[in-house]
Design a protein that fits this description.
Blueprint lengths: L6 E5 L3 H9 L6 E6 L3 E3 L4 H5 L9 E3 H4 L5 E5 L2 E5 L4 E4 L4 E3 L2 E4 L3 E3 L5 H6 L1 E2 L3 H20 L3 H7 L1 E5 L3 H21 L9 E6 L10 H14 L2 E4 L5 E2 L3 E4 L2 E4 L2 E4 L3 E3 L16 E2 L5 E2 L2 E6 L4 E2 L1 E2 L2 E2 L4 H16 L17 E6 L2 E6 L4 E5 H14 L3 H16 L16
Helix pairs in contact: 1-9, 5-6
Keywords: Oxidoreductase
EC number: 1.6.5.-
Organism: Acidithiobacillus montserratensis
């Protein structure tokens, strides 16, 4: 036990927050980790909850069993105010917590770029509740279309527009196309098999920004083959719940799923100093705030560069930056004894449909597509899911989806009963 243990407070129990807490579990310091949820969420698979491929409890793991250590305390609450002079923070439940070192790991929220109309009417894929809402909306649209006698109304109900052609948008687009291809002829035979439409809109000139051009073209061709209508170089300007507007073009659709970007959590306004695009915090080579040596930022919040390349907002970076911060704290803050943080790009991947995906591993100059990429994706994501029970649930749901070609979840979380 250290003679003068510090109180280290971690805000956020995502990939980074959970990792740094685990790495400091035997440090002798007092660790307090705060989160608005009492579970760790494997966010990369939220789109599969939205498409009915996974149950939400397969990717959500209770935090307390993960944080069982004599020097770790979990507090379920939302931080509202940070007092930088007194080194205290205050939660919404009026809890007051003092800190000697503070680790900011509260992640990001969906970025609607100030468009109020879109934020009020579009759906997103950042939380369990949001993903379940998307899944319910899809099935509800099928039910309403089934009860309608108007082909025009049916087409509007079953036109799903996805804004954002990054990994989440591409993966959800493929999963949604697969779902509709299977579920309409099987469960809704009264509907024309080709009645549904999925439109993917990407502001850039290619899907999957950052991937090799060959893999971008592969993703485009595969989604197009599955039936997606892809619009490149355009941005969604508005959505009133019935019509998606793209400049002068109007698309009749009752569902817009927004995957077009993220921005810092509103708590970022409590952090002093300069902010980079989308609210990221500039940090030094040890992930410390420039003017606050006892405050660290990790994961999506941290902004830095290695060899001119900006650190990405991905789970592997969150874990790597968390490990570095833990080492820095364990070293007693002796920066000279620890090389500065360098992000090691482990690669990027996206699944396009069952048994098909794309994967790029720059370290080995590998660009993989097809079944091999899909198997690699499956292994890495199964490995990343925390908890044996969750892994089994995911395997069972994937078995239902990929082998039996049936969605795991087709519930509508809306009660029509007047009682």
């Amino acid at each position: 036990m250290r003679q003068n243990p510090e109180k280290i407070v971690i805000i956020g129990a995502g990939f980074g927050g959970l990792q740094v807490a685990k790495d400091l579990a035997q440090s002798g310091h007092q660790i307090i980790i705060i989160d608005c949820h009492n579970y760790h969420l494997f966010q990369p698979l939220l789109y599969q909850v939205a498409a009915g491929d996974l149950e939400s409890n397969a990717i959500a793991t209770p935090l307390r069993p993960l944080l069982r250590s004599s020097n770790i305390h979990f507090h379920w609450g939302c931080v509202k105010t940070i007092d930088w002079n007194e080194k205290k923070l205050y939660c919404a439940d009026h809890t007051e917590i003092h800190w000697d070192k503070l680790i900011l790991s509260f992640g990001t929220v969906t970025n609607f770029f100030g468009n109020k109309e879109i934020s009020e009417n579009a759906l997103h894929l950042k939380t369990i509740a949001a993903a379940e809402q998307v899944q319910s909306k899809i099935i509800a649209a099928l039910e309403k279309a089934s009860a309608s006698t108007s082909e025009v109304e049916q087409q509007a109900l079953l036109h799903f527009v996805i804004a954002g052609g990054g990994p989440t948008g591409v993966e959800f687009c493929g999963a949604l196309l697969e779902l509709l291809r299977i579920i309409i002829p099987r469960d809704y035979p009264e509907l024309p098999h080709d009645i549904s439409q999925v439109t993917l809109i990407q502001g850039g000139d290619a899907l999957l920004p950052g991937f090799a051009e060959k893999l971008q073209k592969k993703a485009y061709a595969k989604l197009q083959h599955l039936g997606a209508h892809i619009i490149l170089g355009k941005h969604v300007d508005g959505f009133d719940g019935q019509t998606v507007r793209i400049g002068e073009q109007q698309i009749s659709a009752s569902t817009l799923i927004w995957t077009a970007g993220v921005t810092a959590h509103p708590l970022i306004h409590q952090i002093p100093g300069k902010k980079m695009p989308h609210g990221r915090i500039p940090v030094d080579g040890h992930c410390r705030l420039i003017d606050h040596a006892h405050v660290y930022a990790i994961g999506d919040l941290a902004y830095g560069e290695n060899h001119g390349t900006v650190w990405p907002q991905v789970a592997p970076f969150a874990v790597q930056s968390a490990k570095h911060v833990a080492k820095h704290i364990l070293s007693g803050g002796k920066s000279a004894d620890l090389p500065e943080f360098t992000y090691k790009n482990q690669g990027s991947m996206a699944v396009l449909k069952a048994f098909d995906g794309v994967c790029e591993i720059p370290r080995y100059h590998l660009q993989i597509a097809g079944l091999t990429a899909w198997l690699l994706w499956l292994f890495i994501h199964l490995y990343g899911i925390i908890g044996g029970r969750n892994k089994i649930l995911a395997l069972m749901d994937w078995g239902v989806d990929y082998i039996r070609h049936s969605a795991a979840i087709t519930l509508i979380r809306e009660d029509k009963s007047p009682y």
